[in-house]
């Protein structure tokens, strides 16, 4: 693979692979956590390491697909976990690659679920049927239904203009001066990130708890 690209040049890499699911921490088995870490985090790292020699040689660019959900979570903490991890990987990589002329960019989309289909609507019945007996003893079916309906309502509010994210990716690859981070999100979503980044954790917890209570 590397020998093939060495003859024609290799300049840009976009790490876009990702999967998402819904569920509170104890609802998901360890196998699911391992799968998400393997695809969303280690998959991007594997690809990056494979192409790093060529990217250094040609002073290329590496683009990673993160998410504003790296800053907070509303029912998909497993997805947030992987995106927060990839952000830190990128921060280290961006600094290390400066000396080689390689630029590293992160795309942080807001809710584009209707456009990407990364997260289909969740089924409360399926979630309940897959819960362990221990979890069923703690949570009742009505709670699971409430959480599922809440999450589905969030999904339905997502943007269908996926081209906005693609435009950011193109800019990251072609701009003479690309941004380190491209946040492509609605004003309400950016406000949540702002609160999360600048206010004490207790404030953000209160905001999210209020949202969940609704």
At CATH level 2, the architecture is 3-Layer(aba) Sandwich
Let me know the average pLDDT: 92
Overall SS class: alpha/beta
Summarize the main sheet: 4 strands, parallel
CATH class: Alpha Beta
Helix coverage percent: 55-70%
* Widest sheet, order of strands: 1-2-3-4
Characterization of this structure:
The chain has helices spanning 2-8, 30-57, 77-97, 113-116, 124-130, 133-138, 141-156, 163-174, 187-198, 201-213, and strands spanning 12-15, 61-65, 103-109, 181-184. The protein has one domain (12-187): NAD(P)-binding Rossmann-like Domain (Rossmann fold, 3-Layer(aba) Sandwich), CATH 3.40.50. Strands 1-2-3-4 form a 4-stranded parallel β-sheet, sandwiched between helices. It contains 10 helices and 4 strands. Strand 2, helix 3 and strand 3 form a beta-alpha-beta unit. 27% of the residues are buried.
Please supply descriptive tags for the structure shown above.
214 residues; Rossmann fold; four-stranded parallel β-sheet; globular
């Amino acid at each position: 693979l590397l020998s093939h690209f060495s003859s024609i040049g290799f300049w840009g890499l976009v790490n876009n692979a990702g999967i998402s699911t819904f569920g509170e921490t104890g609802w998901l088995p360890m196998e699911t956590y391992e799968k998400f870490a393997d695809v969303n985090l280690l998959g991007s790292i594997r690809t990056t390491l494979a192409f790093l020699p060529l990217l250094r040689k040609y002073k290329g660019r590496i683009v990673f697909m993160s998410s504003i959900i790296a800053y907070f979570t509303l029912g998909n903490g497993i997805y947030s976990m992987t995106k927060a991890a990839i952000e830190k990987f990128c921060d280290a990589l961006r600094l290390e690659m400066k000396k080689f002329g390689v630029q590293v960019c992160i795309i942080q989309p807001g809710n584009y679920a209707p456009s990407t289909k990364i997260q289909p609507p969740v089924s409360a019945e399926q979630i309940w049927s897959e819960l362990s007996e221990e979890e069923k003893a703690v949570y009742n079916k009505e709670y699971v239904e409430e959480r599922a309906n809440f999450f589905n309502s969030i999904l339905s509010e997502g943007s269908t203009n996926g081209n906005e994210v693609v435009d950011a990716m193109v800019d990251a690859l072609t701009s003479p001066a690309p941004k380190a981070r491209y946040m492509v999100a609605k004003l309400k979503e950016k406000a949540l990130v702002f609160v999360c980044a600048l206010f004490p954790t207790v404030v953000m917890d209160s905001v999210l708890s209020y949202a969940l209570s609704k």
